[in-house]
Amino acid sequence: MHVQISGLEFSYRKASGTVIQNFNLHMKEGEIVSILGESGSGKSTVLRLIAGLENPSKGKIQVGSDTYVNGQNSRMLPVEKRGLGMVFQDYALFPHMTVGANILYGLKKWKGPKRKARLQEMLTLVNMTEYKKRYPHELSGGQQQRVALARALAPEPALLLLDEPFSNLDAHLKQQIRDELREMIKYAGATTIFVTHDREDARVLSDRVIFLDKGKVQKAGRSGDLLQESLYASERERELTLLMD
Asked: Which residues does the UniProt record annotate as the domain ABC transporter (predicted)?
C-alpha cells in the first residue's frame, strides 16, 4: 500500500511545545523507510500516531484508500481497523504459546486450509519450520525476532511498523539478522516504516531515511547517499575539533 502523511503535528496535553512538527512522508508500495533519530527525537511518537495509539492535533494519515486520521475534521480510524503489523523492541511474543500459535494469533479471521497454508508459508519465510512447536523461552533472540516478524506479516498488513527491533541483539547477531530481515520484508512486499537510532541499521535495511530531531525532519533522502554524506560531515566535525584543541 502507498502511504501519505501530511502536516502531522502532536503535543502532549501537559507538555510545553510541539513534540512532532509538520511531519510529511510519501511512500510507494513495498518501500522501506527508516526514521532515524536520537532518544527523544519523536521517532517512536510518529509510529504511535500511525498506529492510532496517539491522536495528532493536526495532519492527515492515509494508507492506500483508508484515511487513518484527518486532524482537520477529527476523523480517526479505530486501531483494530487499520490493518497494521507491528514488531516491538521486546518482540511481545506470548510466552505460553508455541511459535506456531504465536503466528496463528494474527490469523483469527482466516479459515481452515487457508489459515494452515499461511502459517506454513510464514514459517518457511523466516526459516522457523522446525521450531513450530517450541516456546519463546526456548529460542534465541534472533529466532524470537523472526517469529515476531512472521506474526506481523501473516495477516498481510497494509503497513508494517518496526520499533527499534534490533535493540536487544548483540552486535554480531544484529549484523546477521538485519540483512535477513530486509530480504524477508522485500520478499513479502510489505510497505515498512522502521524506527532506529542506529545509522548502520538504517543504511542496511531501508530504501530511504528521514533524520528526525526534536520533532522536526532535518534531512530526507536515499539511504546510501544521505548516510554517507552524514558520515563525511561527522568526520569533518571531528577533524575541526582536534584542530581547535
From this structure: 3-239
Query: DSSP secondary structure string, 62-108?
Result: EETTEEEEETTTTEE--GGGS-EEEE-TTTT--TTS-HHHHHHGGGT
Q: Which of 175, 161, 165, 174 is nearest to 33 (CA)?
A: 161
Same structural domain, 148 and 194: no
Judge whether 104 lies within some domain: yes
Q: What are phi and psi of 20, to 5 degrees?
A: -120, 130
Measured CA to CA, the distance from residue 128 to residue 146 in angstroms comes to 8
pLDDT for res 233: 46
Residue-wise pLDDT for 166-208, tens only, equals 877 777 777 778 888 889 899 889 999 999 998 888 988 999 9
User: Which CATH number fits the domain that encloses residue 39?
Assistant: 3.40.50.300
Residue 166 shares a structural domain with residue 234 = yes
Q: Are residues 74 and 189 in the same domain?
A: yes
52 grid coordinates: 492510532
Q: Residue 18 domain-assigned?
A: yes
CA 206, 207, 213, 214 torsion: positive or negative?
Answer: negative
Categorize the per-residue pLDDT at 44 as very low, low, confident or very high, splitting at 50, 70 and 90.
very high
Q: Is residue 216 part of a domain?
A: yes
Whether residues 31 and 71 share a domain: the answer is: yes
pLDDT in tens, 71-98: 765 668 888 888 899 988 778 899 999 9
Angstrom CA distances, 170 to 27, 36, 175, stand at: 31, 20, 9
Domain that holds residue 41: 3-83+157-243
